[in-house]
Specification:
alpha+beta, Phosphatidylinositol Phosphate Kinase Iibeta, Chain: A, domain 2, 5-stranded antiparallel beta sheet, 29% helix, transferase, ATP-binding, PInositol-4-P-4/5-kinase_core
Length: 512
């Protein structure tokens, strides 16, 4: 019998993921993701590769908290089918404060019951958090119940071969619209506390680059709680990504490790971006202004919740490169699979839709609508599609974060580390994205200067004794007189073009 409680007995949450990860079924028969995963004994005596709670046994079956991925996917689909169907029988109404704390629970015995079908998995209990509130969120983003069920439950979920440092599992819906991620308990608690404010923000501003949460659930099986969140998918699998970045606007340890660089599609960081794309990415004026306005608004929301250490996920599809590349069998199969299904229902999961309300985009970029990226150019004039979103938002500036920053500031430049007070972090994040990463296409550039390097350096010694440089970004004509002083990370050789600019206190008006 389904039951509801007024206070949650279990919290759920969300952390970062790799949206560019390939499908496990397409890329690896064994499903083993990381060469650094350690072998630990498994309950059955079979050796298992394990990262966090995620494991892969010698037969190639992925496990999470000793539950196989196959069983977990089946439980998720059975549970969501039941809870969405049950909710559809209830009349729609306004969201009340107590709705954020409701937890509905239903037991799924293997032999079935008068409410649940029989299945081939171990018995499990499925919990749904704040169902009425999340129904509102889904409707706000244009996802009716039938579409939600069709995306998640009409076809088998596809496991992504990326667990990240946390060892989480990721699934993508067969139509590429939704991502399911397993959650950690600490982030879970923070997300539940965030829900009322999240609701208020979305009601006032539905166009955002923040993660879209569509459902929070928990599968209880084998004495373990497996928490999951359903959210928007940043990347269509049918579009090849040529490079991707995780950007914070910080210098401390913000370069991809050698181990990361050995991956087929590494995730690069801030210093890598300035070395690879020193001139930045060029957008038309309307798109640039709308994007920066969206970032400013989102950062203000995160700051109000005392959230920091988030990142901008940036994946780049180079249209000109793609036209010269032969179509791989994997890409062709994904394209066929996505075309076989019903057309993409909406652009709610794309960055392009988030800023269309702020700017009317031109038709300078010839790309199919289903590619759903933000049109841009690099300094060579190559046509690009950008896929972006803000990730890692469940980091509150707690006592431990304050302690971490204080310790790092003693050893390193305090303005260079990524753990900062939320207000400073938000302002630095915005400044870097809208000056070093994204830039306006110059209105009437001189042919000889159209795509010259946008970085200019001069050396001097700062008040702290560290070597400093003067950084002049190439943005547009009205920004040419804006000179920003930045400080070089200790130990970095002078004159290197991959040094990330850090705005001095004078730019921000001091520490606030």
């Amino acid at each position: 019998m389904a039951s509801a409680s007024s206070q949650p007995s279990l919290a759920v949450g969300f952390s970062s993921f790799d949206p560019g990860a390939p499908s496990c079924t397409a890329s690896s028969a064994s499903g083993i993701l990381s060469p650094t995963a350690s072998e630990v004994p498994y309950a059955s005596g079979m050796p298992i590769k394990k990262t966090g709670h995620r494991g892969v046994d010698s037969s190639g079956e992925t496990t999470y908290k000793k539950t196989t991925s196959t069983a977990l996917k089946g439980a998720i689909q059975l549970g969501i089918t039941y809870t969405v169907g049950s909710l559809s029988t209830k009349p729609e109404r306004d969201v009340l404060m107590q709705d954020f704390y409701v937890v509905e629970s239903i037991f799924f015995p293997s032999e079935g019951s008068n409410l649940t079908p029989a299945h081939h998995y171990n018995a499990f209990r499925f919990k749904t958090y704040a169902p009425v509130a999340f129904r509102y969120f889904r409707e706000l983003f244009g996802i009716p119940p039938d579409d939600y069920l069709c995306s998640l439950c009409s076809e088998p979920l596809i496991e992504l071969c990326s667990s990240g440092a946390s060892g989480s599992l990721f699934y993508v819906s067969s139509d590429d619209e939704l991502i399911i991620k397993t959650l950690q308990h600490k982030e879970a608690e923070f997300l539940q506390k965030l829900l009322p404010g999240y609701y208020l923000n979305l009601s006032q501003n539905p166009r955002t680059l923040l993660p879209k949460f569509f459902g929070l659930y928990c599968v209880q099986t084998g004495g373990k709680n497996i928490r999951i969140v359903v959210m928007n998918n940043l990347l269509p699998r049918s579009v090849k990504m040529h490079i991707k970045y995780d950007l914070k606007g910080s210098t401390y340890k913000r370069r991809a490790s050698q181990k990361e660089r050995e991956k087929p599609l590494p995730t690069f960081k801030d210093l890598d971006f300035l070395q690879d794309i020193p001139d930045g990415l060029f957008l038309d004026a309307d798109t640039y202004n709308a994007l920066c306005k969206t970032l400013q608004r989102d950062c203000l929301v995160l700051q109000s919740f005392k959230i920091m250490d988030y990142s901008l996920w940036l994946s780049i599809h180079n249209i000109d490169h793609a036209q010269r590349e032969p179509l791989s069998s994997d890409t062709l199969q994904v394209s066929i699979d996505t075309q076989r299904l019903a057309p993409q229902k909406a652009l709610y999961s794309t960055a392009m839709e988030f800023i269309q309300g702020e700017a009317r985009l031109g038709d300078t970029m010839e790309a199919d609508d289903h590619m759903r990226g933000i049109p841009a150019q690099n300094s060579k004039g190559e046509r690009l599609l950008l896929y972006i979103g803000i990730i890692d938002i469940l980091q509150s500036y707690t006592f431990l974060k304050k302690l971490e920053h204080s310790w790092k500031a003693v050893v390193h430049d305090g303005d260079a580390v990524s753990v900062h007070r939320p207000g400073f972090y938000a302002e630095r994040f915005q400044h870097f994205m809208c000056n070093a990463v994204f830039k306006k296409i110059p209105l009437k550039p001189s042919p000889s200067k159209k795509f010259r390097s946008g970085l200019s350096f001069s050396l001097h010694t700062g008040s702290s004794g560290n070597s400093c440089i003067t950084y002049q970004p190439l943005v547009s004509e009205e920004h040419k007189s804006q000179v920003i002083k930045v400080q070089v990370e200790p130990g970095v050789h002078l004159g290197r073009s991959d040094v990330l600019p850090q705005t001095s206190e004078s730019t921000f008006g001091g520490n606030q």
